[in-house]
What does this fold into?
Amino acid sequence: MDFTIKTRFQPTGDQPQAIEKLAANLKAGAKHQVLLGVTGSGKTATMSWVIEKMQKPVLVISPNKTLCAQLFQEFKDFFPENGVHYFVSYYDYYQPEAYIPQTDTYIEKDADINEEIDRLRHAAVQDVLTRRDVVVVASVSCIYNIGSPEGYQKVSLQVKEGQRIKRRALLNRLTALQYQRNEIDFKPGTFRVRGEAVEIFLVTGDRTLRLEMFGDKIDKLLQADAGISPEFTRLETGSFRLFPAHFWATPQEKMEIALQNIRLELQERLKVLRQDNKLLEAQRLESRTNYDLDMMREAGFCSGIENYSRHLEFREPGEAPYTLMDYFPEDFIVLIDESHQTLPQIRAMAVQDKVRKEALIRYGFRLPSALDNRPLRFSEFEDHINQAVYVSATPGKEEMEKTTAQGKNRTDGKKYVVEQLIRPTGLLEPTIEIRPTENQVKDLTAETKKRKSAGQRVLALTLTKRLAEALSDYLSEQGLLCQWLHSEVKTLERPGILKDLRKGKYDVLVGINLLREGLDLPEVALVAILDADKEGFLRSKTTLIQIMGRASRHPEGHVILYADSITRSIKGAMEEIERRRNIQETFNREHQITPKPIVTSIKEWPFVTEKKKISTEFWMVRDKKLLNKEMRKAAKDLNFERAAEIRDLIRKLEKKEG
It folds into this structure.
């Protein structure tokens, strides 16, 4: 199937020239391009029209999960009939394995895996392997090891009507694919037997496959959408390819070779440790590794199996790991959203991982081959890129230099930097004013109340999580509907908070760094930046421009900088905003355009299941004894998350009383 855009909009403003230039450069083989587009100019729409022109698989990399969620929804709206997927880290909480030798402290890996995101990751990978009309919107998680695409496909099982296979052999193959038999709790990644039929709940979570057997032959192949009472229909193709339920799937005939290689490495490492008289480390490593080997031999899987990925994938020491990028065909295109922030993240990942792993290896917690379970190094990431478009309102020095270096000279190289500075709506950059930091919170409260009375929304930016939460509590006490948003908020809850802000459930959202790039919040008319004169990453020129851009989607967009001095960053940001404002004003005059508000529908985030929040459940309760009783009951039922939320509610009540 071809990429086909479904939208009532047509390219306008300077979108047509941007689309033509980007597509022409891609067809000419340009490896690097920059799309320098201001907030609200329709960069996602431009890239969608480019995708339709190019008809190639696309990987979109975004700097955080919140933006990934928004971009996924936008691309899904443009391409409802094509494969658009969401690929981010599946951890709601993640504490990596680590060892601190100074205090002899071992920190075991602790993680809370979000099963819904895990299913979405599998769905993305499987579509990349089986179709070309696919867009995957990913975080930097896409540069982490997920196992060999060759192994993932080799282990897969092709089933078709008329195929001869004994039922026991079929069940054994499903187990080898790491599907679990479960006759009671039928969920993604499991299968069950119903008389002569075998039902498989696909790991992608979207449907159930039913194989009806007649003797030693598959008589019928049926499928049904996931649900309590599925309605099965005959599979038109008569065949289906089942992929593994986990990554790092190794063909059975190669598993024993991999295990033997792990044993050999273990013996070599034990010899080194004993020669250095590190007997405790040797005993620890031997015990842990042998346990993992037993688990892999019996179940084909073990906790932390990714640390043995070099052996399971038969890679050479130091060889790059297999990532999502390896699953794409060679001619795929990479769109790096908010490149000024995404590229530095990618560059830093491998360095941080190596430092942590070296301590684990030195003190006998892991084999040296664990170093090869890592994200891509930046040079390896660049090697994986066929063609890239860096998308940003403030592109960084690195992508600009790469892009312009492709020309015969610097002037010629500028043809690969495509500007999109005109908003089709005619909206201008926000007005900016500077106010002193003294009484900045009281001033912000008064301004927020003004905006609330006008039906508008506000974003407030602080420097730390603690300040964000404290400011949110204070504004709530002043009668405003307020919520904070930072990295502690779970991945799939963030889009819901942004949706609630747009709907008016909140008057103001308080954040730190997640309220910067790309968020589509046309109801926001005021952006307030506290302590704007504190020079640093969170108050750099680039950051300030990005934050100010959140107010540019509203006709009355305004920015207040609370600062006692005008820093170089503030001056540079204000000058750039003024330059862009002048360009838009000139365009509006020449084309007789009157700025009009952006109208975008507020859509439900598809991957969140609604649950009653504690604050909603007990919003009228002021009896601490009752709340304490509910908290103890939740803890007794091992529902520690609910217990912690009730505890926080009790603390808020105590704070108000005290």
